[in-house]
Amino acid sequence: MKLIILVVLIVGVSALPFEIRDPTRDVALEQPEETFARSDTDNDEKLSFNQFLLTDLPYVQLKQDEFNNLDTDHDGFVTRKEYEQHYQKEKESAYDLKAEYFGQLYDQFDENMDLKLDIDETKNVLEKRFLLKPRENFGEIFQGFDKNHDGGLDLEEYIKFDHEFPFQELDPLDAVEPFPQKAEGLEFKKEKLPMMKSSS
Predict the structure, then answer these.
(1) What is the 8-class DSSP label of residue 44?
(2) How many distinct structural domains can be found in the chain?
């Protein structure tokens, strides 16, 4: 009998979900007094502003990870050189992504491969990429971005267009789709609303 109870207990316990938790990274497990004690780094029973910032454990962990990422030589300090190199890499990465985006855009939409997007190609970009339909005044707006008046937007002009275009001057594609007309011979049944039924 004892053996059966032992087996049932072992099977029951092993069936429970098991999760390994790191109490130093789990805010839910830390009580307010533990948070205070952890943040009071000089043990003087009061928190300076810098110590108070330590009470926000997710923030501390996030900033610690960021610090470790910047401190490339792992000496416990982020030098100006390390700081600038990190953000220069981020800037270059963002530049590379933009270059790739605009390169793909021209590959896809510059149909005559003249390295500029004419008004029809630009409308195609707006419809296919952004699901937007230009209004009648689009030609005037387009000309405002075509600074050299050659009938197309080169890369520099398109980048300005992409950043500064008044998108409120466009309509969503759905809004301009024609409403389906009733097919000939198809009758729609007219029904009264519930409140109309009782009054008749």
Answers:
(1) S
(2) 2
In a domain, 48, yes or no: yes
The answer as to whether 139 is a domain residue is: yes
Per-residue pLDDT tens for 2-44?
Answer: 666 655 556 555 554 545 555 555 555 789 999 999 999 999 9
* Closest listed residue to residue 170, CA positions, set 143, 150, 142: 142
CA–CA distance, 126 with 173 (Å, rounded to integer): 10
Based on its alpha-carbon atoms, the radius of gyration of the chain, rounded to whole angstroms, reads 32
Question: In angstroms, rounded to a whole number, what is the distance separating the alpha carbons of residues 160 and 147?
Answer: 10
State the chain's mean pLDDT as an integer.
82
Which SS3 state, helix, strand or coil, does residue 171 take?
strand
Asked if residue 92 is part of any domain, the answer here is: no
Q: Tokens standing for 48?
A: 């300076």
CB 59 within 8 A of CB 39: no
- Retrieve residue 175's tokens: 């809004």
| Domain range for 61 | 23-70
Q: What is the DSSP letter of 168?
A: G
According to DSSP, residue 172 is labeled: E
